[in-house]
Amino acid sequence: MAQSQIAMDAPARLLSLDFFRGATVAAMILVNNPGDWGNIYAPLEHASWNGCTPTDLIFPFFLFIVGVSIAYAMGNKKTQFGGHGKTILKALKRALILFGLGLFLSLYPKVFTEPIEAFQNVRIPGVLQRIAVVFFFSAILFLKSSEKNLFRIFVVILAVYWAMMTFIPVPGVGYANLEKETNLGAWIDRSIFTEAHLWKAAKTWDPEGLLSTLPAIATGLFGVLVGIYLKRKDIDPATKIAWLFCSGTAAVALGLIWDLQFPINKSLWTSSFVLYTGGLATIILAFCFWIIDIQRYNRFTKPFVVYGVNAITVFFLSGLIPRTLRMFSVKAADGSEISLQTWLYSGFTSFLSPINASLAWAITFVLFWLVVLWVMYNKKIIIKV
Prior knowledge:
By secondary structure, this protein is mainly α. It has a domain at 46-296. The chain contains 16 helices and two strands. The protein has helices at 2-9, 15-32, 58-73, 85-107, 110-113, 115-120, 127-144, 147-167, 184-192, 213-231, 237-258, 271-294, 302-308, 311-325, 340-349, 354-378; strands at residues 329-331, 337-339. It has a two-stranded antiparallel sheet with strand order 1-2. Helix 2 (15-32) packs parallel to helix 14. The two termini are 42 Å apart.
């Protein structure tokens, strides 16, 4: 009887999902905006290649959340009369906007000062671009496939990607490998985008490259499958939580086992990485769902919820502001000209060690956006992309 009552009381919209999304975006802003890229605490850095740090979890968690959100936002449209044409067009429009925002971040601010050079060297892959692609294909697959077929597609993607990366000889190299510049994905990126349009820190490969977007779609489908299960009304919450914990733990274990042959690697977005990070995301969401939505312990959630409801907006603007600050110059105490961002950051380095100053700057940046988003939330300003 108590379980039935809890099931009836479970909300249609997941506050825990907004909380999880907000925490993920806040963490993303924290790791993307250190005061000094040369002074960063180890957990706030990406793994140099194979392996997984806490920072490496952030992007797959967000794509997982995109998948869960699709199941909740489009669930009623899956069986709508008259087909899915309008829903797919709406999803395409949103994906194009996200992709365009990502390109704009890559172009800004040079597009206003040296537009020709900016377009000649613009990085085409990127975080928002990958979110756009994963969202669009995950949405279509959700609308057009049954739950069983979604799982089959998920498994096929992981298996096919593993086979491609570990068995197909790379042209010009002669053998399959998983190294930074000589793997199959890097070769495809250089062949299609050319080095001018890849990640500027590497130029010969891209962490958001074309081929590795395929398993990133699998991460989105992992979230879709979890979202479908969470929405089921014929299962009581306690059973849902138990199965999600078990499934998440199994995925983590499978990822760690596969890591022995196909290493966990964010830049390659390996199949083992999909299972490992998707499993962890499932466990975290299950825990948040039980505490926040079922037990109703939610007083602590607002700082993260305000991030969650305007996630794309704050991610885009948080990338725009530092670029804008670097456009303006001010005079330093010694008379030299420095960027406005460097001048502001000097206030932290004057009394903190380099690594703590770098962290303090990042935390201050997160808190600044928290204030802005809190005001927007209270005024019910939610910018949907």
